[in-house]
C-alpha cells in the first residue's frame, strides 16, 4: 500500500507539472503548442503582402511592362501601386487569418502591444520571428515566379532604400509615418464606434504613404518588410534606418497615447476584434 501511495503522489506531481507548462504564459513550449497557428498566420500575412508587392511592381513598374508604357508619370504609377498595396493590407486585416492573429505583420506593431502589456513575451518573440521569416519567404517565392524581372532596376526586389536626400532624411520620414500609423491605430482601435474600421484606416495610410512618402525612404515602416527584400536581393543600403526609425516612431506614438489616454484605454492587440475568432491576447490578459 505504501508503494502505491508513493507512486500516486509522483504521478500527481507530474500531472501538475504538465498542467503548469500548458498554462504558464512564460513557457516557450506552451506558447508553441497553443499558438503555433497564429504564428504561421503572421508569417503568411507578411509573405502574402510581399508577394503582392513584388507582383504589382512587376506589372506596374517593370521597364517592359505595358502599364509603365501607358503611365510614364512616376507619381501616377506610385499612386496606382499605393492603392493596390493599401487594398492588400486591408484584405489581410479583414481576412480570417488577420482576424485571428490580429494582423500585426510588423515587428514594430507587435513590440508596441507588448510594451502595452497586451502580448505575452513568448508570443511577441514568435510573432516577430514569424514576420521576418514570412516576409523573406514571400520575396523568395516571388523571385522564383518572376525570374530575372525581380532583379531589374525598375523592380529591384521592391527594396526600401533611402532616396536622393540620403539616409537621415529617410530616417526622419520613416519615423514620422510610423508615428502617424501607430497613433491612428491606437486611437481608432480603442474608440468603440470606430474600432471595426481600424484596418481601413491602416490601409488608407499605407496607400497615402506609398504615394507621397516613398520617394524619401521607399516607405517601409517595417523592419521585417525591409529585410524581406534586402536578404534575397543582397541590398543593404541604409538598413539601419528601417531597423530603428519605425520602432522609435511607433514607441513615441505609444508614449503620446499613454500620456493622453492611459494604459487602461488600450483594449486588445488585434487590429480587428469584432469577430468570433480566438484571441490569444485576451487569453493572456485573463491569465494575468
Please provide a written account of the structure:
The structure is a single chain. The protein has 288 residues and is an all-alpha fold. It has one domain: Glycerol uptake facilitator protein (Up-down Bundle). The protein is 71% helix and 0% strand. The chain contains 13 helices and no strands. The chain has helices at residues 2-23, 28-60, 66-70, 74-93, 96-101, 107-115, 121-146, 167-189, 198-212, 214-217, 223-233, 239-261, 280-287.
Q: Summarize this, please?
A:
This protein is mainly alpha-helical and 288 residues long. Helices cover 71% and strands 0% of the residues. The longest helix is centred in the first third of the chain and has 33 residues, at 28-60.
Count of the separate structural domains: 1
* Overall spatial form: globular
Q: Give the helix/strand class.
A: mainly alpha
Q: Please tell me how large the radius of gyration is.
A: 21 Å
Report the helical percentage: over 70%
Order of helices and strands: HHHHHHHHHHHHH
CATH architecture: Up-down Bundle
Largest sheet features: none
Topology summary:
Elements: H1 2-23, H2 28-60, H3 66-70, H4 74-93, H5 96-101, H6 107-115, H7 121-146, H8 167-189, H9 198-212, H10 214-217, H11 223-233, H12 239-261, H13 280-287
